[in-house]
Specification:
The protein is mainly β. 12% of the residues lie in helices and 46% in strands. The chain folds into two domains: 88 residues, no CATH class; 395 residues, 7 Propeller (Methylamine Dehydrogenase, Chain H), CATH 2.130.10.10. It has a five-stranded antiparallel β-sheet with strand order 26-27-28-1-35, with no helix packed on it. A five-stranded antiparallel β-sheet has the order 2-3-4-5-34, with no helix packed on it. Strands 6-7-8-9-33 form a five-stranded antiparallel β-sheet, with no helix packed on it.
């Protein structure tokens, strides 16, 4: 007979701690519907992966995320579950484990939608920007809130004219000033113009305001980033393009005057939705149906520009279907593109996240989702290299849609997902595009936005939180695809060795333990077979 009765007895007899730990991890990685035991308290928190929804009885959609100095994040969007009106700004402050530190809704009786958030340079406060039709002077106005570190309102103001004015992106500069970009048809040359406001962080008063546009129907600013000596703004235009919408990027001086501007032309529709500073240049992300490479549907679009806006390279990434890149973030060794796809994945639409190297080559790509629609809108890279992606989910919501927040490691993995949460390697293909760029000749024109402080309500909210993957340190569980699933003692030993060698950096004691386990197992099997052979017949 064997020296042990079964796998459990084997674990208890030989190297108990290592075997038990590996067995538990294999169980969670395979079943995917249990929470692992909480690790002992540590003086320094290890980075963790997780996935959680936040919502309640109606529609809640996360639109933007920013990293906070404590390793957590600030997430903003819109809620119909809480607040005063149709939709309200909804702001959640999460720690590095996804635990809510505070949550508040802000709004009036109409529609108030937060689209962007930025963290003050000293980490002590936030600027939130979006639009409102509850409080302003017209149909829709810019609405900007300056919050303290606990969500208290230091000031809030609407900015607008006689028609539609939407704030899409906000940033802080080196002076601590708040700069907001969006579009307006209250003033300007055409139906919509780029519009940028610089605000005093103490009062919200306008330092300067300019519009940029021509006589076309659409000049829409969607992203802004502080560039050290000014600001880079990206969006799309129909005023100067070859046909339909084209990508338009402008570089502003600190006083709002134009440093350079370029429209990037290619047949078809090309939208820029996000921009970031990358070394001595800029990166722009959006979507395109140019070149008809995927039967005319939309693909991720990525432009790499030098410091003067000249194109270094342009690539698209996709399959037959729709891929929208809504956000770009800069990593230490490349770029993170985040958006959604219906070409591949688990359900109708899934989050799609890609890691791109400096030349535009895909390093990894993954989809995240369930059986319904799950759309990613914003991503940020933390100081430890981990990635937070936010958006909306209908697959794991309470009722309607919920905020969905994913914390990925630097390879895009999330440990221990529940069985219904599908993570897959993506199958998008890359193709080089050839855009021409030329200056438009547009000059900055003074805008005349009115500003007002208004009456509104702040509501403490009570989100229902659901986990699709519990907080798990690096090496604390199987990556997407799972560990080997062979049964029996041999399968268990293979899984144990796989975990100790492949799921993070193992300690010397774990490696020694693995060798001991293997040696004991081999010895036992040999002795067992020897005894069977030696047993007399009859």
């Amino acid at each position: 007979m064997l020296w042990w009765k079964n796998e459990k007895d084997f674990c208890n007899r030989f190297y108990r701690n290592t075997c038990t730990s590996a067995r538990v991890l294999h169980s969670y990685g395979t079943a995917g519907n249990s929470h692992p035991p909480q690790p002992a308290a540590q003086t320094q928190k290890a980075p963790v992966t997780w996935a959680k929804t936040y919502g309640n009885t109606s529609e809640d959609i996360a639109m933007s995320v920013a990293a906070t100095p404590d390793g957590g994040c600030i997430v903003v969007g819109k809620t119909n579950s809480f607040g005063s009106g149709d939709y309200d700004f909804w702001v959640l402050k999460l720690d590095s484990n996804g635990t809510i530190q505070w949550q508040k809704a802000y709004g009036g009786t109409g529609e108030d939608v937060a689209l962007s958030v930025a963290v003050a340079g000293d980490g002590d406060g936030y600027a939130v920007a979006g639009y409102t039709n509850s409080l302003g002077a017209s149909s829709y106005d810019f609405w900007v809130l300056k919050l303290n570190s606990t969500g208290g309102v230091e000031w809030q103001k609407s900015y607008g004219g006689a028609s539609f004015d939407y704030a899409y992106s906000v940033t802080f500069d080196s002076e601590g000033k708040i700069v907001v970009a969006g579009y307006s048809n209250s003033f300007g040359s055409g139906d919509y113009d780029f519009c940028v406001l610089k605000l005093d962080p103490a009062t919200g008063n306008i330092t300067w305001q300019f519009r940029y546009g021509a006589s076309g129907t659409d000049d829409v600013a969607r992203g802004i980033a502080f560039a050290g000596d000014g600001y880079v703004v990206a969006g799309y235009t129909k005023s100067f393009g070859a046909s339909d919408e084209d990508v338009w990027v402008i570089k502003l001086n600190m006083d709002g005057t134009l440093q350079w501007q370029n429209v990037y032309k290619n047949p078809g529709i090309d939208y820029a939705l996000s921009v970031a500073v990358a070394g001595d240049g800029y990166v722009v992300a959006g979507y395109t149906n140019s070149s008809g490479y995927w039967n005319g549907d939309h693909d991720f679009l990525f432009l790499k520009l030098n410091s003067t806006g000249e194109v270094q390279w342009v690539k698209k990434y996709g399959r037959p279907g729709v891929e929208w890149a809504c956000s770009i973030a800069v990593a230490s060794d490349g770029y993170i593109l985040a958006g959604h796809t219906n070409s591949f994945g688990a359900g109708g639409e899934d989050f799609l996240v890609m890691k791109i190297d400096q030349s535009g080559t895909i390093k990894w790509q993954r989809t995240y989702g369930g059986l319904k629609n799950d759309k990613g809108y914003s991503a940020v890279v933390h100081a430890d290299g981990y990635i937070t992606v936010v958006g909306e989910t209908s697959s794991f919501d309470v009722n309607g849609t919920d905020f969905w927040v994913l914390r990925l490691n630097s390879s895009g993995a999330i440990a221990n997902p529940i069985q219904e949460f599908t993570i897959r390697d993506g199958s998008a293909e890359a193709k080089q595009l050839f855009f021409t760029n030329e200056s438009t000749g547009v000059t900055a024109q003074q805008s005349t936005f009115s500003q007002s402080s208004i009456t509104f309500k702040t509501v403490d909210t009570f989100a229902t939180v659901k986990e699709q993957a519990p907080p798990t340190p690096e090496g604390g569980g199987a990556p997407p695809g799972g560990a080997p699933t062979e049964g029996g003692v041999e399968g268990w030993m293979i899984t144990s060795l796989w975990l100790m060698s492949g799921a993070g950096a193992p300690s010397t004691s774990l490696l020694i333990g693995a060798v001991v386990v293997l040696a004991v197992a081999v010895t036992g099997v040999l002795l067992w077979r020897f005894r069977l052979r030696a047993k007399p017949k009859g």
